[in-house]
Write a structure and sequence with these properties.
Strand content: 5-15%
Order of helices and strands: HHHEE
Distance between the termini: 77 Å
Number of strands: 2
Helix content: 40-55%
Radius of gyration: 29 Å
Structural class: mainly alpha
Strand order of the largest sheet: 1-2
Length: about 140
């Protein structure tokens, strides 16, 4: 009978404590990887947002340089060929209506002239990874 017990013990295998330790290590590594993955996804969306804002602001500046007035809306930039389309908001899964425009100052030489789009920002109250608000970019 003791030979059978010795054979089972000598046959090798994992004890319950060894399995729990291995599972705990795997869980810790997985949680660290998940946090890094989520932060990299947010950082990628922030990079897209910065690029989109730069693109739209550049198009507004080009429109002003060509026409001498600011565009009436973002749709004007698309219809006039300065943008192919209004970029999607990277944080709301493709909504195009999340952009907030800042109107230009009225022309002192022509106060009856319509104001146009001077700047564009994202309508969001969320904070970026660096702590700043997306609406302040």
């Amino acid at each position: 009978m003791q030979q059978i017990r010795r054979r089972r013990a000598a046959a090798g295998g994992f004890t319950m404590i060894e399995l729990i330790v291995v599972l705990a290590i795997i869980m810790v590594l997985t949680s660290v990887a998940l946090v890094q993955y989520r932060q990299s996804v947010v950082a990628a969306r922030e990079a897209v947002l910065r690029s989109d804002l730069h693109l739209m602001r550049d198009a507004i500046d080009q429109y002003y340089a060509d026409k001498g007035a600011y565009p009436a809306s973002l749709d004007t930039l698309v219809s006039e060929g300065y943008l192919r389309s209004i970029p999607d908001d990277p944080f709301t899964s493709g909504r195009k209506d999340n952009w907030v425009t800042t109107p230009s100052e009225p022309d002192p030489n022509n106060p009856t002239a319509a104001t146009g789009v001077y700047d564009v920002k994202l309508a969001s109250d969320k904070n970026a990874l660096d702590g700043s608000k997306y609406a302040d970019w």
